[in-house]
Here is the input.
Amino acid sequence: MKTEAGNGGRTWQLTGADGKHYDSTRPGSLGGHRRSRIYGRLDCRAALQAIARGGYVANRVFFLNQADAEAAGYRPCAVCLSQEYAVWKANKIDSMLREKA
Here is the structure.
């Protein structure tokens, strides 16, 4: 997070649908882990535990919304977004079965 000199407002570095970082005047609504390619809520129990243990923060990214996270190649967290994860997993299995056929 940094202060933007032009308008005195705050900006946040987010990851866009193309996977590239950009500055936004709106804060991200979702957090993600760059190496595991998982995204979830900012108050996710699993993410907060990982942050408390250290090592997670260096790979943390933020997204404006779910569409950007998924377009950038991230999957939903099974802990805090369990319904979205179940849909993602079912679609992944269907895709794998179609590839084998």
